[in-house]
């Protein structure tokens, strides 16, 4: 049997190693501490470097330097730390550098608490830092998916020269599930002729996000937009669970999507034609499946551990064709199957308009 | 015969039961601060600024006005408070990670500006709150969850002697290190903390007091073993003493 | 089969590792499993709990809010989790530590004086948890004692493998207690 039982955080860390990550810079914060703790042991075993920075600001800037030097590099944190990294993320995006950033989201705003939350969705998918840039954002829903998407994140980051964010939550990080590491050999990144490696026998390489001439910056932003359009055209991913003949479609990602699956099971058992469309990429957002589902579904229900963030993208996707309802819990509280099911019933019985 | 009361809870302390782990000396430090506030009679005149770290709930125990700061930024927040309230006593309490890693900039520049605030710095040589990772004050060789083989100075460098560093700044009026691992030191520590407040009250400038503390939970030792470990490992590296007193010319 | 178990007690009582053992055993038996702990520093000295899901289908939700079984190791946890148990659910209580005053009559209840049993029969209170685990397995049959022993071999470092026979004894003692009590 090739499966092992692992915590989400440790699984991400091992997946990063298999994905070719050789450098990790981070700063402790709950609930993601097992990632740096695992890598402090593991990276030296494969000739890599683990370094605990003095702050998240420093950590992301170390990532900036390592990425510009051509390495596969990762950092991880949670809410408050990810906020501190935003400036660096903007620079990394502007300089078009590949890296992987993990956010095991906790309750906010401010110091909030360490419970699971999904309230960093806007920050992850709509910018977060300054300027016109996009991150590729994955929203895994199981420990296995954490592994598969982390390994893939390094490939996408290099393919597009763009940061990729893994948006988890406290539960995904702490949960143990059996996982299979399908990648048997540690991956290596592609050649990076653009990297700052010392201009030996070639023209110098410049890693920068500074374009002081307005026309040149506009040209750069246009190039970025073309890249984002290219990504959006081919990288949208979702999972559809009983969503082909529905009266109600649930929309949820991550841990919340798991609970919604159980709600769909219960609804189907009790004769309600419910389904779930779960985005796997949060950016680019898989809009089409929702748009199409609006043909047969009477209503949508978005469930999040937030005050309502992804629901805006679901509404944009459904584009006014059908009502999109929302159920959210915050503060580190996970919505229960019972409360979601009650909402589903209320909607299909016509109680909510 | 009437009994004389020799021990009581400081008036500027609340009745809240402390959340610290058994054997941790954070609680002693919080109490000493409350005693000093009582003795100087400044409870109604004081604004405290807290850290992010094990002392994050310090406002639960001190019955004074309080301002939260994000991780490492307490000296900047305290600066803001003091500039608005120059006639109030403003002090901060921070852990070693808070003050000597993520918040190094803020503490250095508060000192350089000669902010008239009192900064207390609890050095337990580890990140307590987050479960025992390496701190900027972790001793070389000390095992933590992010230095599983012991802190290797080749990879992770050396402990930061922040209090000595701050002593060389012209803006610093008072800089001292104390410990609370036994009764004699507790008494000394209180005197020094009091002095840091007095320096502020007299308008003499910026004061920093580092207080050595134990962390049995994350050191993986019993409370008694922790005290021994502190004596044998921390005290030799972080010696107790005053590094600068008011009026002294900067070295 | 869908078993949703919550184990709750004080931090340091071994609640987390009990859950991990069952999860591991389920995985060995090729079942779908998941384990979620309560986490963070505020758990120190406070109450700790973990949720275990074992199913022969793919697990939709690993988050357990209406458990089918609950194992209770301290008083506050009884108050907290008793109302959440599904009707017909199994309530296992370490009666050496918790005085049971059960306000519901739609449950299967098993009280085990686990610390006394461990002390009297095995002369080692450290296996009190494992006795309860044995009783749980006997009452639910979600995994076998053999699989737990198998997991112990994986979870315990080599130098602790000498403890495995004692643990097996404890599991069997718990199972026998449950068999005689016939919940
Ligand atoms: C921006 C940010 N990064 C990380 C954290 C997580 N965090 C909370 S406390 C702490 C370190 C505390 O260590 P220390 O300052 O030494 O104080 P102690 O807990 O040991 O008293 C960290 C890293 C946070 N709250 N905010």
Q: Which key phrases capture this entry?
A:
A: alpha/beta, Rossmann fold, 2 domains, seven-stranded mixed β-sheet, 12 helices, B: Rossmann fold, 9 helices, 7 strands, 16% strand, binds thiamine diphosphate
How is this structure best described in words?
- The complex is a heterotrimer of chains A (353), B (251) and C (183).
- Chain A has 353 residues and is α/β, with parallel strands linked by helices.
- Chain A folds into 2 domains: 4-234, Rossmann fold; 240-348, Rossmann fold, CATH 3.40.50.
- In chain A, 41% of the residues lie in helices and 19% in strands.
- Chain A has helices at 8-18, 34-45, 56-68, 79-94, 121-125, 143-160, 170-174, 214-234, 254-269, 287-293, 310-318, 337-348, and strands at residues 4-7, 23-26, 49-52, 73-77, 99-105, 136-138, 163-169, 176-179, 238-241, 248-251, 274-279, 281-283, 299-304, 324-328.
- In chain A, α3 packs parallel to α4 and α10 (287-293) crosses α11 (310-318).
- Chain A is globular and about 70 Å long.
- The mean pLDDT of chain A is 96.
- By secondary structure, chain B is an alpha/beta fold.
- Chain B is 36% helix and 16% strand.
- In chain B, β5 (172-179), α7 (183-201) and β6 form a beta-alpha-beta unit.
- In chain B, α1 (26-40) packs across α7 and α3 (96-102) packs across α4 (104-112).
- The longest helix of chain B is centred in the last third of the chain and has 19 residues, at 183-201.
- Chain C has a 6-stranded mixed β-sheet with strand order 2-3-1-4-5-6, sandwiched between helices.
- At the A-C interface, α7, β8 and α9 of A face α1 and β2 of C.
In short:
The complex is a heterotrimer of chains A (353), B (251) and C (183). Chain B has nine helices and seven strands.
Q: Please summarize the sheet with the most strands of chain B.
A: 7 strands, mixed
Mean pLDDT of chain A: 96
CATH architecture of the largest domain in chain A: 3-Layer(aba) Sandwich
Query: Quick one: CATH class of the largest domain in chain A?
Result: Alpha Beta
Biggest sheet details of chain A = 7 strands, mixed
**Cofactors and ligands:** thiamine diphosphate
Uncertain parts of chain B = none
Top-tier CATH class of chain B: Alpha Beta
Work out the helix count of chain B.
9
**Looking across the biggest beta sheet of chain A, what order are the strands in?**
3-2-4-5-7-6-12
| Strand segment tally of chain A | 14
Quickly give the structural class of chain B: alpha/beta
Q: Shape of chain A, please? A: globular
CATH architecture name of chain B: 3-Layer(aba) Sandwich
Count of separate structural domains of chain A: 2
Shape type of chain B: globular
Largest chain-chain contact? Answer: A-C, 24 and 23 residues
Give the termini separation of chain B.
57 Å
Low-pLDDT stretches of chain A are none
Q: What structural category arises from helix and sheet content of chain A?
A: alpha/beta
How widely separated are the two ends of chain A? 50 Å
